[in-house]
Structure formats: structure tokens, C-alpha cells
Specification:
Blueprint lengths: L2 E2 L10 E5 L10 E11 L10 E3 L19 E5 L8 E7 L3 H9 L11 E6 L6 E10 L10 E7 L2 H12 L4 E3 L4 H8 L5 H12 L3 H11 L2 H26 L9 H21 L1 H9 L1 E6 L6 H9 L17 E7 L2 E7 L9 H15 L3 E7 L6 H14 L10 E7 L19 E2 L8 H16 L11 H19 L3 H19 L4 H11 L5
Parallel strand pairs: 5-10, 11-13, 11-14, 14-15, 15-16
Antiparallel strand pairs: 1-2, 2-3, 3-4, 5-6, 6-9, 7-8, 8-9, 12-13
Helix pairs in contact: 4-5, 6-7, 6-14, 6-15, 7-13, 13-14
The structure holds guanosine-5'-triphosphate (GTP), potassium ion and magnesium ion (MG).
Protein name: GTP binding protein 3, mitochondrial
Length: 529
């Protein structure tokens, strides 16, 4: 409950100074409040004033984590290293305007956010450096929230180093640390934590699906989802706290607690759905584990080389060629995957190959997707039959719902089959025909892989995914706390459980202060009206 100084009149709209909620009114301590005061509702027979202020009305709330060394003005080359057409150098901090003026003297600052062509010269010697596009972004409307400048220079290494050295000579400027621009954007509330992660992923994304997911996360979808959940919790908490504080006044609407209960239950269901999905976003970020397995000489290594478009593994007519597990990251039909080639599975071999078989089996257990390869012209061999019985049929090929591991059965060397027969193996579990030699059937295999990987990784265009184990950890923590809420013996414990739950969500959104509770109390119902 915040206390307002006497000088304020009810419903006056103005930025103001608030007394700290945790201090007694008599003490002259206070905080300068940058929020717009929306209204004061005097309670009957008491001089306690209650406020409604909304930080969201002004700007986004700062994250509350100040960036280290935030007083300095930083500069860095923001485009890639090396020779290129255009290189972008930017600065952030209070001396940005001064730096821009120093390098473009005698001209004035360009108009905000408009590209202007300027001659850049070294402020110490006056020596011309380059003719460049410059941009001026006065804070807070900039990427970092601070004053920023951008120099789009010609991308030769000598130009870039000349401009960087010139900037370094301007008083108050220093080279930026890795990630410092983003760190400042986060500190100034320009990006939430999940958006920062999305930005990092976008910069590192290598496949189309990864790029789509990162862009959606940068757009704040995951953060928005969590913020929606956090708001539900804040509301429930506000209801429970209001009940604790004001229930004797008989001024509260009926059913306040029931409403909180049903909101919590709905939230538990939503969290459960997303947690069941949790591995998918992580797979999309770091790649699904696709393991190629089968009996010796089926053509596993040939397939790995075909899919990765490079000679990763040794191919030879000798059975038992591959011994170690060979891993290679690949882009499979737009999805990232870690493709593993393994030793052919068979019994009764020497100790080295036996170790290879052991490693292959271990890797099979960790697979998200098994690419099971058999020689279509050699299905009756003991090794083929054994592989079908021990790996393919238990994994439930053609019946993926029965197993957590997915499996695609590929019959390789179709070129060796007599021509003209439609499906030579109708009694086998559902399968694809392929020839690594001729490439026939590869398109069909890629199509099938795309479907399997979409199921494994989730489709980033249908909804936000949890991309890191950190997200999963906090959602689980939130869900656990909600379980404690339901079992809580009294209201104080119930409120505490909600606070813990909300704390977990705030790790994903970056917000969640006590102001929000006040905000919701008065938006939803007016206590003591
Ligand atoms: N005719 C034909 N031969 C193939 C095909 N794919 C692979 N081969 C041949 O089959 C032999 C075995 O191929 P690999 O790729 O080494 O087989 P593997 O399953 O990795 O064998 P191991 O590592 O020893 O278990 C090689 O001689 C390949 O050239 C195919 O589609 N058609
Ligand atoms: K071989
Ligand atoms: Mg091999």
C-alpha cells in the first residue's frame, strides 16, 4: 500500500514523488516516481490514500539490472570482420553525439534517424578517412535506449581501423566488450531476457527453421506468453492479498478467492501443455539427434555422405568399415540435425568391432530419430533379420504413437532389385526405397525426414517454443509452486506459493515488482470504494 504525500489532490494526473511503501508516512523518505499517477481514491474514514499507477503507460520498465560500466560511451564494428562492401560501426552512450560531431566537423549533427552522407576525418589530424553514411539515434529511441551513432563506411580493413582509431581518440569513448550493446538494451528495458536470447539465436541461426524461431522469439512471443501467464498470477495474488487485508471490511466482491482458484487451475493446464512440448524448441535450437543404424554394409555411411553432401565417412565393400560413431551437423530439409554414422550391428566379431557395436547401440538409445538402413537385396540375412527384430519392430515403425523414439525404415540399394515391381516388400513395416548409388528415392526420403523433424522440433510458425532448458526449468518451478498453492493450509501460505510461482515466470519476462500488484488491485476492483 503506497502512501501519497498530502499535497496531491485526488485524480490529479502528474508525475510525482511517492513515499516509499515500506516506510512510515512520518519519515521524510521518498522515491521520485516516473510513473503517471492515475488517481487517488481516499478510503472512507481513513486518511490512507491508494493509488493506481501504471508503469506501462510511460515507457517499458527498465530491467533493474544496470549494465556494468554503463556511464561510458562504447564503440565497435558491428558488421562482420574482414573485407566487405560496407561495414557498420556504432557507438552507444552519452558521448555519442560528441563523437559523431568530432568525426564529421565542421558539420552539425544530422537529423535524428535520417541517413546523411558525410566526410569522416580524424579529429586529431584532420586527415580524411572516408565518405560515409552516418545516422544519429538520440536516446531513448535507439537500440540500446542511449544516444547512439552509426557510421556506414566502406568495408576495407584500413578504413575500418582508421575510423575505430579516430573514435578511440575521442574523450569518453572506449571499445565495447562482447555483447555490451545488447546488455545495455536489456538494462534499459529495450529487450527482455527471452528477446536477448532470441537475438543471440538469430545471429547464430544456420537453418531456415532456426531463423524463423529466433525471429519469433526476438519479436517477444515467448516473453509475451510468459507475461500473459505472469499477469494471471499477479491477478490471482492480488485477489488473495486483498482478501487477507480487506475481507473484514465486507467491501470485497463475492467469489474473489474462487476466481483466483479457477485462474490458477487454467494456468496449470496451459503450463503443462507447454512443458510437454519443451524438448521440441530445444531440439530446434541445437539440432535433433538423427542416428543412422543397420547391419554391416547396408550403406549407412553412403547415406550419411549423401545427406551431408560431403565425404564424412569411409565407404567400402568390406563389412565392418565404420567403427567409431561419426557425428556431423547437417541441415536436413530446413531443420538442424546432428547426424551420427554408426558401426554395422552384428554378433560374433573381433573385440574392436565389438566395441564399435557397443557404441552404436549406446548412441541408438540417445536418438531422437533413427534412420534404419537395410540392404533391400539382402533382407533375409541373419544380420538384417536380427536388426528388424531388435530395433525396427520394437520402435514401432509405422506406428509412431507407440514409442517416444521415431524411426524411418529405409531399404537401400534399390538399384539391385529387379526392375518394374511396385513394392517388393509389402510384409515389412512401412518403409522407403532408396539407392545411394543412383540417388533415386532421395527426394522422398527428404520429404519424410522433413515431416519427422517437424514433429520432433515443432513448427516455429505455429507458436512460441521453449528454446532453452532455462525456460523449462522455470516453467516447471512455476508449476510446482502452483501445486503448493492448491495444497496450502492457509491464505498466507497460498499467497507465498503464488509469489514463488510468479518469481519463476519473472525470470523469463524480467518484470514482476510489487507495483504490478497494486496496479491490478485497482484495475480489477476498487477496495473500500
Ligand atoms: N548397388 C549399390 N551399392 C551401394 C549402395 N549404397 C552403398 N553401396 C555399396 O555398399 C557397400 C557398403 O557401403 P557402406 O556405405 O560402406 O555401408 P555401411 O553400412 O556403412 O557399412 P559398415 O560401415 O561396414 O557397416 C559399398 O561398396 C557401397 O559402394 C546402393 O544404393 N547401391
Ligand atoms: K562397409
Ligand atoms: Mg559404414
Amino acid at each position: 500500500k503506497a502512501v501519497v504525500s498530502d499535497s496531491l489532490r485526488p485524480r490529479e494526473l502528474q508525475p510525482t514523488r511517492l513515499l516509499c511503501p515500506w516506510d512510515s508516512p512520518g519519515k521524510n523518505t521518498g522515491v521520485d516516481c516516473h510513473f503517471l499517477l492515475q488517481g487517488i481514491f481516499p478510503t472512507q474514514g481513513s486518511n490512507l490514500g491508494l493509488l493506481h499507477f501504471s508503469p506501462r503507460l510511460c515507457t517499458r520498465q527498465a530491467s533493474g539490472y544496470p549494465a556494468p560500466g554503463s556511464g561510458a560511451t562504447i564503440f565497435a564494428l558491428s558488421s562482420g570482420q574482414g573485407r566487405c562492401g560496407i561495414a557498420v560501426i556504432r557507438t552507444s552512450g552519452p558521448a555519442s553525439g560528441h563523437a559523431l560531431r568530432s568525426l564529421t566537423a565542421p558539420r552539425d549533427l544530422p537529423p535524428a534517424r535520417k541517413a546523411c552522407l558525410r566526410l569522416l576525418s580524424d579529429p586529431r589530424s584532420g586527415e580524411p578517412l572516408d565518405r560515409a553514411l552516418v545516422l544519429w539515434f538520440p536516446g531513448p529511441q535507439s537500440f540500446t535506449g542511449e544516444d547512439c551513432a552509426e557510421f556506414h563506411v566502406h568495408g576495407g580493413p584500413a578504413v575500418v581501423s582508421g575510423v575505430l582509431q579516430a573514435l578511440g581518440s575521442v574523450p569518453g569513448l572506449r571499445p565495447a566488450e562482447a555483447g555490451e550493446f545488447t546488455r545495455r538494451a536489456f538494462a534499459h528495458g529495450k529487450l527482455s531476457l527471452t528477446e536477448v536470447e532470441g537475438l543471440a539465436d538469430l545471429i547464430h541461426s544456420e537453418t531456415e527453421a532456426q531463423r524463423r524461431q529466433a525471429l519469433r522469439q526476438l519479436d517477444g512471443e515467448l516473453g509475451d506468453l510468459c507475461r500473459g501467464w505472469a499477469e494471471t498470477l499477479t491477478k490471482a495474488l492480488a485477489h488473495v492479498e486483498a482478501y487477507i487485508d480487506f475481507s473484514e471490511d465486507d467491501n470485497l466482491e463475492e467469489g474473489v478467492l474462487d476466481q483466483a482458484d479457477s485462474e490458477v487451475r487454467r494456468l496449470e493446464v496451459a503450463l503443462g501443455v507447454h512443458l510437454r512440448d519443451a524438448r521440441r524448441g530445444q531440439r530446434l535450437r541445437s539440432g535433433a539427434h538423427v542416428v543412422v543404424a543397420g547391419p554391416p554394409n547396408a550403406g549407412k555411411s553412403s547415406l550419411v555422405n549423401l545427406l551431408s553432401r560431403k565425404p564424412v565417412s569411409i565407404v567400402s565393400p568390406e563389412p565392418g568399415t565404420t567403427r567409431d560413431v561419426l557425428e556431423t551437423p547437417v541441415d536436413l530439409a530446413g531443420f538442424p540435425a546432428l547426424l551420427s554414422d554408426t558401426a554395422g550391428l552384428r554378433e560374433g566379431v573381433g573385440p574392436v568391432e565389438q566395441e564399435g557395436v557397443r557404441r552404436a547401440q549406446k548412441r541408438l538409445e540417445q536418438a531422437d530419430l533413427i534412420l534404419a538402413v537395410l540392404d533391400a537385396s539382402d533382407l533375409a540375412s541373419p544380420a538384417s533379420c536380427n536388426f528388424l527384430d531388435t530395433v525396427v519392430i520394437p520402435a514401432g515403425a509405422g506406428n509412431p504413437s507407440g514409442s517416444h523414439q521415431r524411426l524411418l525404415l529405409v531399404l537401400n540399394k534399390s538399384d539391385l532389385l529387379p526392375a518394374g515391381r511396385s513394392d517388393p516388400h509389402p510384409d515389412l513395416p512401412s518403409h522407403l526405397l532408396l539407392s545411394c548409388l543412383t540417388g533415386e528415392g532421395l527426394d522422398g526420403l527428404l520429404e519424410a525426414l522433413k515431416k519427422e523433424l517437424a514433429a520432433l522440433c515443432g513448427d516455429p510458425s505455429t507458436g512460441p517454443l521453449l528454446t532453452r532448458s532455462r525456460h523449462q526449468h522455470h516453467l516447471q518451478g512455476c508449476l510446482d509452486a502452483l501445486g503448493q498453492y492448491r495444497q496450502a493450509k492457509d491464505l498466507a501460505l497460498a499467497a507465498e506459493a503464488l509469489r514463488v510461482a510468479r518469481g519463476h515466470l519473472s525470470h523469463l519476462t524480467g518484470g514482476g515488482g510489487t507495483e504490478e500488484i497494486l496496479d491490478i488491485i485497482f484495475r480489477d476492483f476498487c477496495v473500500g470504494k
